[in-house]
Design brief:
Layout (H helix, E strand, L loop, with lengths): L1 E7 L3 H10 L6 E4 L19 E4 L1 H9 L3 H5 L4 E3 L1 E6 L5 E5 L9 E5 H15 L2 E4 L4 E7 L2 E6 L4 E9 L6 H5 L4 E17 L6 E6 L4 E9 L2 E12 H9 L2 H11 L7 E4 L3 E10 L3 E2 L2 E3 L5 E2 L7 H21 L7 H30 L3 H15 L2 H12 L12
Parallel strand pairs: 1-2, 1-11, 2-8, 5-13, 11-19
Antiparallel strand pairs: 3-7, 4-7, 5-6, 9-10, 10-11, 12-15, 12-16, 12-17, 13-14, 14-15, 17-20, 18-19
Organism: Stutzerimonas stutzeri (Pseudomonas stutzeri)
Family: Belongs to the UbiH/COQ6 family.
InterPro entries: FAD-bd, FAD/NAD-bd_sf, Ubi_Hdrlase_CS, UbiH/COQ6, UbiH/COQ6_monooxygenase
């Protein structure tokens, strides 16, 4: 069973790529180890613990592939402002959408909501062959691309295979793609919490001595007292926090957040995720491309991971559609390196910036503490510099794919 293109992984990034390519005349198979079922949803449902901070560029991509109505029709939480401060000093900075005449900085959306909005669009498309419960066992290069063997014995072939199967990508492993990776020696605790005061449609981030703590605004059935938290801490501290009962955890969280939204009144079940940065040395080889977390994972410091992945998908779709239009082979390295040349520098720059922030705010020496506090204060006094940062966060600058442009 041969296709022009097989996308392995029907998560947010892989599904977006499939939808971006629909209707062009390509034969596309989208396979995933999961069932690919849309979950029943009610506005009063508890929040999923994993969320994404979708930028304006990501919203445009999701709109243009037909998934945004299904996402917005479930539950999204817009945010208009961002407050960042150093818990070990007096430096702080405030960003606002109004500074660049935008309505919002972005939307905090549960990953499950994004996924189900994409699944709605996929199932409505009719032109994409979905293969659920399809676990990849073997991957072999052939004269005409790649041969895939699934756990049930089924064999598939394609001119181009795209790995969109996450940080622990089976495609990347089976194809022998080399990576650079390192452990942050930190874990992230994620959950949803209800605070005494409304979240003010603001993303809050405090840099503590143990690691950054983010409160991201959530809205459920018009209740704006909820936030998604991402609390980065050393492994030992994360284990201690995870062992606390809910009341003690809420008290510790309130203290760490300096009670910016009053007391933390309740918390949903917590997840603890080890933090590791990973970057593939190459995104492409003949007949193969890596996108999203299969190509790069980044510190959750600024919630940029999924935004980078959606841009990968949009750029790769643009490159492949241009190649198909001129009758070029999709798996040709001359085609695929165009994608790599556009995305790798942008992703590396974002990863380096996040790494720099993480190291600066983890630094204990007094001169570095002085430097970061002075830097925050200086930027707060420079509206032009802040506006530049906001435009970058919105996805309004750089080499944008057509799907992400205004």
């Amino acid at each position: 069973m041969h296709a022009d293109l097989i996308i392995v992984g029907a998560g947010m990034v892989g599904s977006t790529l499939a939808l971006a390519l629909q209707g062009a005349g390509l034969s596309i198979k989208l396979i995933d180890a999961g069932p690919l079922d849309v979950q029943p949803f009610a506005l009063t449902d508890p929040f999923e613990p994993r969320v994404s901070a979708l930028s304006a560029a990501s919203q445009r991509i999701l709109e243009r592939v037909g998934a945004w109505p299904g996402i917005a029709g479930r539950r999204i939480s817009p945010y208009t402002d961002m407050q960042v401060w150093d818990g070990s000093g007096t430096g702080q900075i405030h960003f606002s959408a109004a500074s660049v005449h935008a309505e919002v900085l972005g939307h905090i959306v549960e990953n499950r909501v994004v996924q189900d909005g994409l699944l709605d669009a996929l199932k409505a498309s009719g032109s994409i062959d979905l293969l659920p419960n399809a676990r990849l066992e073997r991957l072999q290069q052939t004269e005409h691309g790649w041969s895939l063997t699934l756990a049930d014995g089924q064999q598939l072939g394609a001119d181009l295979v795209v790995a969109a199967d996450g940080a622990n990508s089976a495609v990347r492993r089976l194809a022998g793609c080399a990576t650079r990776e390192w452990d942050y020696m930190h874990h992230a605790i994620v959950t949803s919490v209800r605070c005494a005061e409304p979240n003010q449609q603001t993303a809050w981030q405090r840099f503590t001595d143990d690691g950054p703590l983010a409160f991201l605004p959530l809205q459920r059935d018009e209740d704006t007292h909820w936030c998604s938290i991402v609390w980065s801490a050393t492994e030992a501290e994360a284990q201690r926090l995870m062992a606390l009962d809910d009341q003690a955890f809420c008290q510790a969280l309130g203290r760490a957040f300096e009670y910016r939204l009053g007391d933390v009144l309740e918390a949903d079940p917590r997840l603890c995720i080890p933090l590791r940065q990973r970057h593939a040395k190459r995104y492409v080889q003949p007949g193969l491309a890596l996108i999203g977390d299969a190509a790069h994972t980044i510190h959750p410091l600024a919630g940029q991971g999924v935004n980078l992945g959606l841009l990968d998908a949009a750029v790769l779709a643009e490159v492949l559609l241009a190649a198909f239009a001129r009758d070029a082979r999709l798996g040709d390295m001359r085609v695929l390196t165009r994608f790599e040349r556009r995305r790798m520098p942008h992703n590396l720059a974002m990863m380096a910036a996040m790494e720099g922030f993480e190291r600066l705010f983890q630094a204990d020496p007094l001169p570095l503490r002085w430097l970061r506090n002075t830097g925050l204060k200086a930027m707060q006094a420079m509206p032009e510099a802040k506006a530049l940062f906001v435009r970058q966060a919105l996805g309004l600058s750089g080499d944008l794919p057509v799907l992400a442009r205004v």
